[in-house]
Amino acid sequence: MSHPQYRAAIFDLDGVIADTARFHFVAWQRLAKEEGFAIPHVVDDRVKGVDRMASLNIVLEYTDRGYSQAEKDALAARKNGYYVELIKALTPADLLPGAGEVLHTLRAAKVPVGLASASKNAVPVLQALGVLDDFDYIVDAATVTNGKPDPEIFLKAAHALGVDPSLCVGFEDAPAGVTSILSAGMFAVGIGEKDLLADAHEVFPSLADVSLARYFQL
Ligand code: G6P
Ligand code: MG
What we know:
- α6 links the parallel β2 (113-115) and β3 (137-138).
- It contains 8 helices and 6 strands.
- The chain is of the alpha/beta class.
- The two termini are 17 Å apart.
- It has helices at 21-34, 42-46, 52-59, 69-87, 99-108, 122-129, 152-161, 175-183, and strands at residues 8-11, 113-115, 137-138, 168-172, 187-191, 202-204.
- The protein has a 6-stranded parallel sheet, sandwiched between helices.
- The chain has 2 domains: 8-19 and 93-214, Rossmann fold (3-Layer(aba) Sandwich), CATH 3.40.50; 21-87, Orthogonal Bundle (DNA polymerase, domain 1), CATH 1.10.150.
- α1 packs across α4 and α3 packs across α4.
């Protein structure tokens, strides 16, 4: 099926544009280790698309110790410090396959491009990857009240781009993100494994496998 009628593209960041999931996981692992427990590898998938505090709550499922909200705030800040340290090493080589090409093609075709990421580190990450200027609008994660799977973040991006959600294509690597796109009434493209992202309209292993001409007039 071909859908060349779409007018805007809205991307998730971690796992779609940037190879940063491993850094989030390493930072959580370090935090857990310092707190005296270990986290299994499934946490890597479980925290995808999940905001910082909700991710911390997932991590803390693996310890019996209880933490007050103030302690949790401190833990989340500590993890973020480790993450910020790790992303200093990011370069354009950490763009996921096809991401740079897709962004440049959309830019050349004058298709509005938005970012709908739960990450409060989105701007420095895009900067380090050298693609900050390829985005017309970046949702400020700090202003989002309801995280994915709620549609709020994708709707905010569509609104700012001035494009009706039904004319937007959303790209996501996390099931919660796909649900967010679908609830926003957009066309959902999953990036990753078909089994995990079965709800998406279409799924491709990476952005390098996506043919933009199916959705946009190039
Ligand atoms: C993305 C990642 C999550 C991360 C969240 C918040 O959605 O997939 O793993 O927890 O962003 O990131 P932040 O940089 O704000 O801690
Ligand atoms: Mg993601």
